[in-house]
Amino acid sequence: MGKKITIEPVTRVEGHGKVTVKLDDNNNIIQSRLHIVEFRGFERFVQGRPYWEMPVLVQRLCGICPVSHHLAAAKALDVIVGAGTGDGLTPTGEKMRRLMHYGQMFQSHALHFFHLASPDLLFGADGDPATRNVIGVALEHKDLAVQGVMMRKFGQEVIRATAGKKVHGTGAIPGGINKNLSVAERDEFLKGADPLNIDKMIDWAQAAVDFLKGFHGQNADMLDNFAKFDSSHMSLVGKDGGMDLYHGALRVVDTNGKKILDDIDYQDYTKYIAEDVQSWSYMKFPYLKEFGKDKGWYTVGPLARLNCCDFIPTPLAQKEFEIFKAYTNGKPNNMSMHMHWARLIELLHSAEMMKELLNDPDLLKDDLVTKGTKTNEGVGLIEAPRGTLFHHYKIDENDQIEMANLIVSTTNNNWPMNYAVEDVAKKNWTGKDNITEGMMNMLEMAIRAYDPCLSCATHALGKMPLEVTLVDSADKVLDVKSR
Amino acid sequence: MESVSIKILVYGYGNVGRQDDGLGVELASNVEQAQFTFVDTDSNYQLNIEDADNIIPYDVVIFADASVKAVAPFQFYHISPSKEITFTTHAMAPQSVLALCEDISEVVPECYIMEMPGYEWEFNKEMTEKAKGILEEATSFIMNLLKKDNLTKQDFASAVTCECDVSPE
């Protein structure tokens, strides 16, 4: 045996979050910012690559939501190969992609709730950081932890069956899909040994929603008022105004529920959305052109989707949607911690959608690809787990990528995350000149509600520590803590 | 080798689209090609909570990964459960996977890490030449271990190259 050495954590691909809170001479908060401090240029990297490589290539962005990038890129390329904008695919092509997408939503939302949110909820901001995690949950709430593990596993298997494999899946191709679902695969998901079957997944998803409602009943003050601020909300909605996480038109509602943009063809997104930059962050700040940089920012993700859609087209999730909407009398919900509630309603919806799709015989058919007349530009949009995801490509006469622009969900939520941090800091840090574990926990809770994926947003390589710095009005550092 | 009675999982993780970050996945792929009857392989971008269930059926699990700080050619070491999880939101360290496994199951496999140094991490599929050499040596090490006659759990314990203090990500 060799000598004893110390090794840093093995590498992973994630970003780096840094929060700075600035105090005046009386220790009042005068500024709070979430900085993103690393950057890699993915858009530049793909220039010159053949367009058909994009659905696989974009999965290099990170390992957190590769399926969302895979599908958004494929949707953009559908336009380029003349297969239409989302609804031009064969029934098998579109439904296989939808099954892949709802599998991704299901496993991602399950992961977020059981791994990330439940420790915050069960142990609170005052919980010991050493045990305030999924392992701590498993020790005290074993059933909850087992459900989280199995729901993640089910979603991962759906991805494997539809995308071909877990790493760098190839299922979605320009104009369609490269495989259908076998009868054996379908039957395994529908009737697999307990608990890995779709009916059990629906039961557990419903139980997760019920758990959250019960928790809310006992902790309404915290969930309602923690990181609460007015916001506009953006998402895709279906043609009928219902929730559609795979395809639709863009809708934006303001904080009062007024539709300030509606029925927008996302091929034209550059007419409505621009991206600002700030000197203190490498992450862009998207905004609605019509309302300007200061007032045009918006929230995306589960809360925004429930605020934008008129209904949810599956029965159990619709019932929960009605309860959710009734809580704010039908007005948009601007409570950041209700993101968890919205996410679980989507978890239930995703499970119901998977069951509906698995029972659809179109999944077993062989007409997989649509062909048409090629164009040189396409935009693909999808509602990824964390929110609206934009992929925009232009190709040259050699079929190579000439321009790529990606606006990922976490980038869309850049301002809202900053406002959430500011709200928490102002309400809890005023008058203090050092950072406590409880204060760190609160910042984590606020940021985690948005489920940020900083690796996509920053295109960074490295770990994703959270570093919090407290500075005075002259930018002198008073305290620094990191996790 | 014929009389091996233990079940082994070689699990590589990382992003093969980011140069040397794919070392673990490539190592698992190399082992898979040997088609040992008592060895399963798996791979993913990163470890996560479902892996606590995935490892339960095995006697020995080898997690293979690239590292920014490992010493060439590689470190092979035993790990114990760790309940520490940092802010990182979407991945788990192998020690944390093991701790979760311990929480949800009565049976926990013996786990080791094959940690290989990587050098470049950009959006490029091509692994660096140095990393290719590392992969070759690490693969050879694992293959020789798996080819041992009457392979037992003790053989893995005897093969460790260092005793490492590793903090979970």
Overview of the structural elements:
The complex is a heterodimer of chains A (483) and B (169). In chain A, 43% of the residues lie in helices and 18% in strands. Chain A has 483 residues and is of the alpha+beta class. In chain A, helix 13 runs antiparallel to helix 14. The two termini of chain A are 32 Å apart. Chain B is α/β, with parallel strands linked by helices and 169 residues long. In chain B, 30% of the residues lie in helices and 21% in strands. Chain B is built from five helices and six strands; from the N terminus they run βαβαββαβααβ. Chain B has helices at 23-33, 51-54, 94-104, 129-146, 153-159, and strands at 8-13, 39-44, 60-67, 75-79, 110-117, 164-166. A five-stranded mixed β-sheet of chain B has the order 2-1-3-5-4. In chain B, helix 1 crosses helix 4. Chain B starts with 7 loop residues before the first strand and ends with a strand. In chain B, 56% of the residues are buried. The model of chain B has no long low-confidence stretch (mean pLDDT 88). The chains are: A alpha+beta (483), B alpha/beta (169). At the A-B interface, strand 1, helix 4, helix 5 and helix 6 of A face helix 2, strand 3, helix 3 and strand 6 of B.
